[in-house]
UniProtKB/TrEMBL annotation:
This is Uncharacterized protein. It comes from the Bacteria. It comes from Weissella viridescens.
Length: 60
């Protein structure tokens, strides 16, 4: 069964970038909305480690 990535956010030095369902990064998410401050890394096998690290930074 093929995994279908979800939209998520990754933290960068400039803010948060939106990750599309194909894994492509598209621009910054708004820093004003708290929901944008949590990375969603489910079903991103190639980016999972990087996203887990950004989640660890957010919760620490």
């Amino acid at each position: 069964m093929k995994e279908h990535p979800k939209v998520g956010y990754i933290q960068t030095d400039l803010g948060y970038q939106t990750l599309l369902d194909n894994g492509e990064v598209i621009g910054e998410a708004s820093k004003e909305r708290p929901s944008d401050q949590y990375a969603i890394y489910e079903n991103f096998p190639t980016n999972r480690k990087a996203l887990e690290k950004s989640v660890a930074k957010l919760v620490s």
